[in-house]
Amino acid sequence: MDTIIEKIKAIIKENYNLEIEEDGELREHGIHPLRTVRLIVLIEQQFNISFPTENMNGTDLKNVKTISRCIYDIIKKEERI
């Protein structure tokens, strides 16, 4: 999971020039809904996944840690298929 967190932080740093701790809320750092959608697209490309609609909410997309949990769950779910 640490690798996922580091990759997400790198995406944020590269695309938004922000350094965010894993539990820092994206909104507090200026990543509002439209920027969050762009971030999700970048993450989907990086990890070659698709976020399910049920994960596109304020709870799952709150910070790097919650996003990494979603990615981990998506990857694990796809491995079982």
Describe the overall structure.
By secondary structure, the protein is mainly alpha-helical. The longest helix has 17 residues, at 64-80. The protein contains 3 helices and no strands. The protein is globular and about 35 Å long. The model has no long low-confidence stretch (mean pLDDT 92). Helix 1 packs across helix 2 (33-47) and helix 1 (2-16) crosses helix 3. The chain has helices at 2-16, 33-47, 64-80.
In short, what is this structure?
Helix content is 58%, strand content 0%.
Element layout with pairings:
Elements: H1 2-16, H2 33-47, H3 64-80
Helix pairs in contact: 1-2, 1-3
Query: How many β-strand runs?
Result: 0
The percent range for helix content is: 55-70%
What Rg is obtained from the alpha carbons, in whole angstroms?
12 Å
Uncertain segments of ≥5 residues (pLDDT<50)? none
Find the structural class using helix and strand composition: mainly alpha
Distance between the termini: 20 Å
As a percent range, the share of strand residues is under 5%
Total helix count? 3
Mean of all residue-level pLDDT scores: 92
Q: Biggest β-sheet, characterized?
A: none
Order of helices and strands: HHH
Shape: globular
